[in-house]
């Protein structure tokens, strides 16, 4: 989010100051600056994607091992006539739906962190002091 806001702020500043940039013939300087800032933004997006894939992979592997553990324990209980096959199917169905929901909660950390950063940035702007207006009131008489 920080890299995104830096990228957007840079583009807005460049667009607002395009007359000055062209007037002083500094297009190449601002082109290089834009490329560096946009490259940083792209690298952050790439890193975020890699992090999301790692979390997905690790949570998926954990899900498989937990389901295998539940299946083995439940199957052992069926073989010892402690529970019935129908109960085994119910246990597997309930546990798989619960574990998938828990996995999705683990994947929700990235959007939550993005929202947290966005809120922090929003509160930075909202905490700025208002511009003081000290002026003389002008009355027009016709």
TrEMBL record:
<feature type="transmembrane region" description="Helical">
    <location>
        <begin position="88"/>
        <end position="112"/>
    </location>
</feature>
<feature type="domain" description="ABC transmembrane type-1">
    <location>
        <begin position="1"/>
        <end position="114"/>
    </location>
</feature>
<keyword id="KW-1133">Transmembrane helix</keyword>
<feature type="transmembrane region" description="Helical">
    <location>
        <begin position="55"/>
        <end position="76"/>
    </location>
</feature>
<dbReference type="GO" id="GO:0005524">
    <property type="term" value="F:ATP binding"/>
</dbReference>
<protein>
    <recommendedName>
        <fullName>ABC transmembrane type-1 domain-containing protein</fullName>
    </recommendedName>
</protein>
<dbReference type="InterPro" id="IPR036640">
    <property type="entry name" value="ABC1_TM_sf"/>
</dbReference>
<dbReference type="GO" id="GO:0005886">
    <property type="term" value="C:plasma membrane"/>
</dbReference>
<dbReference type="InterPro" id="IPR011527">
    <property type="entry name" value="ABC1_TM_dom"/>
</dbReference>
<keyword id="KW-0812">Transmembrane</keyword>
<keyword id="KW-0472">Membrane</keyword>
<dbReference type="GO" id="GO:0140359">
    <property type="term" value="F:ABC-type transporter activity"/>
</dbReference>
């Amino acid at each position: 989010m920080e890299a995104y806001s830096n990228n957007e702020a840079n583009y807005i500043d460049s667009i607002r100051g395009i007359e000055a940039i062209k007037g002083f013939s500094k297009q190449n300087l601002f082109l290089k600056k834009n490329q560096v800032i946009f490259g940083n933004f792209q690298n952050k997006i790439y890193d975020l994607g890699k992090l999301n894939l790692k979390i997905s992979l690790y949570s998926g592997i954990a899900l498989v091992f937990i389901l295998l553990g539940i299946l083995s324990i439940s199957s052992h209980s069926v073989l010892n006539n402690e529970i019935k096959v129908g109960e085994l199917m119910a246990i597997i169905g309930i546990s798989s739906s619960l574990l998938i929901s828990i996995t999705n909660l683990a994947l929700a950390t990235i959007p939550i962190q993005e929202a947290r950063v966005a809120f922090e940035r929003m509160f930075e702007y909202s905490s700025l002091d208002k511009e003081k207006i000290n002026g003389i009131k002008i009355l027009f008489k016709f």
